[in-house]
Design goal:
Blueprint lengths: L1 H11 L19 E10 L3 H4 L5 H5 L4 E8 L5 E8 L3 H11 L12 E5 L2 E6 L2 E8 L5 H11 L27 E3 L12 E6 L2 E7 L3 H13 L5 E2 L6 E7 L3 E8 L2 E8 L6 H10 L2
Antiparallel strand pairs: 1-2, 2-3, 3-6, 4-5, 5-6, 7-8, 8-9, 9-13, 10-11, 11-12, 12-13
Length: about 280
């Protein structure tokens, strides 16, 4: 009876959170750890990043652990794994820090391996490996990515809004998550941007339709000469702005979307209609 009770009590306990993934130099033969394992939180990351920690914090950073690995040839890899706010923000942090000269690879949520750096998002984690000296070290970088990714919890995850942007005219790899002040407007707290010839398409999700309607009311007030647009979602308007150029904004349920920065002579309305048609 006692054993049965113990089993039932154990089954009722919540599952333990996965252990934070600490990089391991021994994951790839021929590499050893140099120095101690690094660990930084929100209070200490500033010192490690030499003051460049604000980007991490805007994506919900909580913890980083890392190691430095060396081999007999004198090569060095600085490996860090960071926990960010959620899988959307981990993906967004990767996109914000990727090498724009190279394509995004289908590694976990998204990744890149270039001559001296590898970066990957998986679950709510962001893996970064920086190589020195200055030479092509993609072989070692990819070997460590392949070895370490299975040890990082979480699944491959691309934010759902990414697939909602129309594909026609979309610039390759241009969709990104803006963690705060989308379009430079504080009332649009977090959202997604995508680049088109007709301007920048944007998409924001609110918790409820009422919350989205309240934000839409404030957004319309930001443009005193806004004109209503009929037949576009639940409500919509167009405007011309000194900083944002031609603008079309719409609300459909819990989502606020539209187009901004339309170039002179370009009509953003067709793109806004195509975006609205894809919103659930």
């Amino acid at each position: 009876m006692t054993s049965l009770l113990a089993i039932l009590l154990a089954a009722a306990q919540p599952a333990a959170a996965p252990a934070f993934p600490v990089p391991d130099c021994g994951a790839v033969p021929g590499w050893t750890q140099e120095g101690v394992t690094r660990r930084y939180d929100t209070e200490t990351l500033f010192d490690y990043m030499d003051g460049n920690s604000e980007g991490y914090f805007s994506y919900g950073f909580t913890l980083m652990q890392g190691v430095t690995c060396v081999n007999a040839a004198g090569d060095q890899l600085v490996i860090d794994v960071s926990a960010l706010g959620d899988p959307d923000r981990a993906w967004g942090f990767f996109v914000a820090n990727r090498d724009i000269r190279a394509p995004i690879e289908a590694i976990a949520s998204a990744g890149q391996v270039v001559p001296r750096k590898a970066t990957v998002a998986k679950g709510l984690y962001y893996l970064e490996i920086a190589a020195s000296p200055d030479k092509d070290q993609r072989g070692a970088l990819r070997a460590f990515v392949d070895a370490l990714l299975p040890r990082i919890p979480g699944a491959a995850h691309v934010p759902e809004p990414v697939a909602l942007f129309p594909s026609a005219g979309l610039e390759r790899d241009s969709v990104r998550l803006v963690p705060e002040s989308l379009l430079g407007l504080r009332l649009l707290k977090t959202g997604f941007l995508a680049q088109y010839p007709a301007g920048r398409a944007f998409l924001v999700s609110e918790a409820t339709a009422d919350a989205a309607a309240a934000v839409m009311t404030k957004l319309r007030a930001r443009f005193p000469e806004a004109k209503p647009v009929a037949g576009l979602g639940d409500e919509a308007f167009s405007a011309q702005d000194q900083y944002l150029g031609g603008v079309v904004a719409l609300r459909k349920g819990t989502r606020i979307a539209g187009v901004a920065n339309a170039p002179a002579g370009s009509d953003p309305l067709p793109l806004a209609r195509a975006l609205a048609a894809r919103l659930p």
